[in-house]
Design a protein that fits this description.
This protein is an all-alpha fold. The chain has nine helices and no strands.
């Protein structure tokens, strides 16, 4: 009976020590790194982008994309920066984003970040960059008849690859956000036309 009792006590002590060791090994805080199972897999030896890599024949870590592939979320834009291509974009490109209140609100955020500095809060071209004299050329009034008469595709073309003195923003603003931005610009134009009608 004593042997069984001693054996069970010994097993219990071993079990408790093992549990304590496992719990201690799992602990990870500012004071201890804990224990990692298969540390060679947990801490992989990654190559930095511009370092040499012996795993490839050319010795380069950064790989060239497979021909014909495009980045995720990227949409091809088969237009050039000229008036004819801009008009063609106006005919061929249709805004796929409905002008809902949510879309206009998201477009306003994009406008505030990327456009307001030049085109102003109301889109009249009197932004702080121009009014302060930092930008010498007057930006386009987005609420005048010329801008109002532009098709959505023409505005999308301008935002994407630029036009005149305006630079390209296609690399900064995602495709869907550009369409939402156009919805907001249309909202500004509608507000300006109502204001103009009231003033008359």
């Amino acid at each position: 009976m004593k042997k069984i009792y001693k054996s069970s006590n010994k097993n219990m002590v071993i079990f408790l020590l093992l549990c304590g060791f496992i719990l201690y090994g799992c602990d990870r805080n500012r004071n201890t790194a804990g224990w990692d199972y298969f540390p060679d897999m947990f801490y992989s030896a990654a190559y930095k982008t511009f370092t040499r890599n012996p795993n490839f024949k050319d010795g380069m870590t950064m790989r060239v994309p497979v021909p014909g592939t495009v980045p995720r979320g990227y949409a091809t834009f088969n237009y050039t920066i000229d008036p004819e291509s801009r008009k063609r974009a106006g005919i061929e490109l249709v805004n796929p984003v409905p002008p809902t209140a949510e879309s206009v609100a998201r477009g306003k955020k994009v406008y505030t970040i990327f456009c307001m500095g030049c085109h102003g809060v109301s889109g009249d071209g009197n932004g702080p960059l121009f009014e302060s004299g930092l930008y010498p050329m007057p930006p386009r009034d987005l609420t005048d008849k010329v801008s109002t008469d532009l098709k959505d595709g023409e505005i999308f073309h301008t935002i994407t690859i630029g036009f005149g003195s305006m630079g390209a923003h296609g690399s900064q603003i995602r495709t869907e956000e550009r369409w939402e931005l156009i919805n907001y610009i249309r909202n500004l134009q509608a507000g300006a036309s109502v204001k103009s009608a009231v003033e008359k």
